[in-house]
Design goal:
By secondary structure, the protein is an alpha/beta fold. It is 50% helix and 15% strand. It has a domain of 151 residues: P-loop containing nucleotide triphosphate hydrolases (Rossmann fold, 3-Layer(aba) Sandwich), CATH 3.40.50.300. The protein is built from 9 helices and 8 strands. Strands 2-3-1-4-8 form a 5-stranded parallel beta sheet, with helices on both faces. Strands 6-5-7 form a 3-stranded antiparallel beta sheet. The radius of gyration is 17 Å and the shape is globular. It binds adenosine monophosphate (AMP). Adenosine monophosphate (AMP) binds next to helix 2 and helix 3.
Amino acid sequence: MNPLKQRIVLLGPPASGKGTQADRLAQEFVTPHVSTGALLRSECERGTPLGREADAWTCKGLLVPDELAVRIVATWMQENGPRFLFDGFPRTVEQAKHLDTALAAIEAPLDLVILLQISDEAIRQRILNRLSCLKCGATFSTSLHGIAEGQACSRCGAPLVRRKDDSAEALEQRLKVYRELTLPVVAYYERTSPAILHRIDAGMGSDAIFAQLSTLLTTL
Ligand code: AMP
């Protein structure tokens, strides 16, 4: 199906389901899913200088510097063009301003900003039970899917791992960073482009969230 909305930002705290939903939307609407976290993890896995620089921040649950996040997104857009579903970008007001400037320069403004809202308690439960595939980005819940670390990803066969920043300590840091640096991004869009900002309750089941997102992507 062809979405009417081509430039989409998904905002939300860790484990609000941004990655899972962006993946499903990308498959349904063929809009590229761009996770800055996954791009950084891939650099890190390959041991590139950028990956090593990023790892010093990500493993502690801190954001990488804006300049680095903006650079990785600018490179992606140069190579792939201005059609995207951003998951995890922008994470600061500075990044949001950079994105607006870059899109204004090519007269291709954002179509949608969606905030996935969920309680801190639900986030803690999800993260501490989460196993991830670093190859394809799929995530699984040890409690819901009855799987253990080291088992093969059911999608691509790579071993499932607990992300370094999914530890209890790093999670508290990530929640703090989200409140202090990323929530102001919501206020920024509320101020600059309220018509494209939508909020979704991410505590609902995955299918219900997907249905609401699909409606947002396909209606004017
Ligand atoms: P995520 O996979 O979205 O949870 O991101 C994992 C980690 O990558 C974050 O905790 C940050 O350290 C880093 N990261 C991802 N996206 C950004 C961004 N837009 N700005 C700064 N750091 C980021």
